[in-house]
Write a structure and sequence with these properties.
Belongs to the tetrahydrofolate dehydrogenase/cyclohydrolase family. Keywords: Amino-acid biosynthesis, Histidine biosynthesis, Hydrolase, Methionine biosynthesis, Multifunctional enzyme, NADP, One-carbon metabolism, Oxidoreductase, Purine biosynthesis. The protein is of the alpha/beta class. It has nine helices and eleven strands. The protein folds into two domains: 85 residues, 3-Layer(aba) Sandwich (Rossmann fold), CATH 3.40.50.10860; 124 residues, Rossmann fold, CATH 3.40.50.720. Helix content is 40%, strand content 16%. α1 packs parallel to α9 and α6 packs across α9. The longest helix is centred in the N-terminal third of the chain and has 21 residues. The N and C termini lie far apart (58 Å). The structure holds 5,10-Methenyltetrahydrofolate.
């Protein structure tokens, strides 16, 4: 028996290609006197969140985007965090920024996200940005969904006409991904599955593209995957043995393409964040 393993959708190599393009565009903006600047607001001392924020500042340095970092103590009040958001809204050096999620439980994250100036929303998670996504108007798009579409495009995985099964209805991945993929420019047919789905295996088996974003280790098994399908692993669960994704390793023997975790969608999410900041600066400079 000969097993032909899936083609790996390499998020790191794709991120590097995106950064090469962004570097050129940032240079052009700087020549016109515009310097994109990404702000991060981090509340508390979750080690995972600290690592993500550090990564985002490293990414900015790689492409010439200035970065502005605001770290606040875990016991910050709603008013104290809001004051920092107001400060970044008013700061011309900060052309886009994010509030790192999750924030400590005593804070109202919805109210904080809404306080961000929509013109500076780098994450695409502001209600105005999400509304624009529903309406098909230009604006910041959520980083992970856009990263997924970009990764599929660069590997020539057909999206138009494809049946995509998205597992997970979270506001950062599953829900906006369904909206993005059903736009006329993507033209996919999407089934959005979640914990209330009756027969997940039957749904996944029909998919040309599977996006697993449920946060449930090894949820997608080889038996559930149509031979040749593209399977993208977006789940991240921290265990004692390290990080594990939503896709069982055996899926590589069945799928045509696999975006692994790590090394797949995660690096794309970060690349799109920087891309959103550069695009917002380009829009403002027009
Ligand atoms: N306002 C906000 N925006 C976000 O975009 C946001 C957030 N909050 N909170 C947390 C989640 C998670 N997230 C990841 C980004 C990159 C990797 C990534 O690059 N992962 C690597 C390594 C895995 C790791 O070290 O975690 C990989 O998959 O290869 C993972 C997860 C962005 N998030």
């Amino acid at each position: 028996m000969e097993f032909v393993s899936a083609t790996i959708l390499d998020g790191k190599a794709t991120r590097d290609a995106i950064f090469d393009d962004l570097r050129t565009r940032v240079t052009a903006l700087r020549e016109r006197g515009v310097t994109p600047g990404l702000g991060t607001v981090l509340v508390g001392d979750d080690p995972g969140s600290h690592a993500y924020v550090r990564g985002k500042h490293n990414d900015c340095a790689k492409v010439g985007v200035t970065s502005i970092r605001r770290d606040l103590p875990a016991d910050s009040t709603q008013a104290e965090v809001e004051a920092v958001l107001d400060e970044l809204n008013a700061d011309p050096a900060c052309t886009g920024y994010i509030l790192q999620l999750p924030v400590p439980k005593h804070l109202d994250s919805g109210a904080l996200l809404e306080r961000i100036d929509p013109a500076k929303d780098a994450d695409g998670l502001h209600p105005v940005s999400l509304g624009r996504l529903v309406l098909g108007e230009p604006g910041a798009l959520p980083c992970t969904p856009r990263g997924i579409v970009e990764l599929l495009r660069r590997y020539d995985v057909p999206i138009a006409g494809a049946h995509v099964v998205v597992v997970g209805r979270g506001v950062t991945v599953g829900r906006p991904l369904g909206l993005l993929l059903t736009r006329r420019s993507e033209n996919a047919t999407v089934t959005l599955c979640h914990t209330g789905t009756k027969d997940l295996a039957a749904e996944v088996r029909r998919a040309d593209i599977v996006v697993a974003a449920a946060g449930s280790p090894a949820l997608i098994t080889p038996e559930m995957v149509k031979p040749g399908a593209a399977v993208l692993d977006v789940g991240i669960t921290r265990t004692d043995a390290g990080l594990v994704g939503d896709v069982h390793p055996g899926v590589r023997e069945v799928a045509g393409h696999v975006a692994p975790m790590p090394g797949g969608v995660g690096p794309m999410t970060r690349a799109i964040l920087v891309s959103n900041v550069v695009e917002a600066a380009e829009r403002a400079a027009r």
